[in-house]
């Protein structure tokens, strides 16, 4: 008697999916990177232009992903596209990198931010931040194992609280903060500084592509995935531009560039210390939303890896009763905890995780753009409910953006980036071992 195979079911509404994406992208980056962007531009207008341009670049990528997700809905997301375009080997290396570098590093990164702010309220000793980070990863992983409904409703509430909090900050800043005359320039150099600013902008926008991993779980996905991607980018761009407008209005460009905690400084100037405390709470909520969304989507690639590769078959089991890939979530959680320990030992958790994930992330993001070009040529008869406009120029532009960010991340990444690349390369022996075992089984 054949074994019944349980697969993902379309249980997510368009609102659920948008909440996941917005919750992931509007994470902790927006509280850290605006000061770095301001330090690399010549005026407030150029700073706002950089954030608008970041939204436009993300829109280019979203249009490419809209075609891929509607033509090839699958829980594996980018893994599935790489499998169809390039075969098993590149797809395996992507899934390995996502499990050990990209997604798990992206879970550890906001977990450290949550730990930093929780430690301000109740310190737990020398490794307080890491202790809180470990605790929150365990709690949210467990919540997502319990069931898909619990995971998605938690995300909806966290995203709603985060967006409302940011809207409140924008309103309070505009109406109550003393206006600072906008500086016409900062200490940024006249040459190439804008390119550096865009690296930080696009880092902050990163994460919208996670929509690919829930494409098989969105109701009427062939029609609604376009709405999810474009709607998410629109909401995120509006939030980012408005919050930076509030920064420039309340702090001035030079004040923003020199601030280590711009939102806290902004609210302190508007309503005093209570405003700064509110910001600490908001950042903690934002970190929780980013962690939960990343846990939710990340395990889907691990599930696809186990579904397609014999050596990892234990990951490819979908729990019908809960609607979740339990084993994939457990493995993802364990690796994330190991990275938190690594970050705690280096004493630079956030910076280490950024360097660790960036080069590998942009490498495979570039390959996903190439995959669209390959699949459009190789599989012209596959139904495509949405076709990327201005083909092939739009995907070519997306590939160029990814190539630039890959070069930049390799140029600026330190030991963390090198470690991430080495971990990616360790997947090659595992790939060869899986191929050898598969060949032996077929003899």
UniProtKB/TrEMBL annotation:
Main subcellular location of this protein, as a coarse class: membrane
UniProt keyword terms in alphabetical order: Membrane, Transmembrane, Transmembrane helix
Family annotation (Gene3D superfamilies): Amino acid/polyamine transporter I
Subcellular location, record wording: Membrane
UniProt GO molecular function: L-amino acid transmembrane transporter activity
Protein's UniProt keywords contain Membrane: yes
Cellular component terms (Gene Ontology): membrane
TM region(s), chain numbering: 12-31, 43-66, 91-115, 127-146, 158-177, 197-216, 228-258, 278-299, 327-346, 358-376, 388-407, 413-433
Name the record gives this protein: Amino acid permease
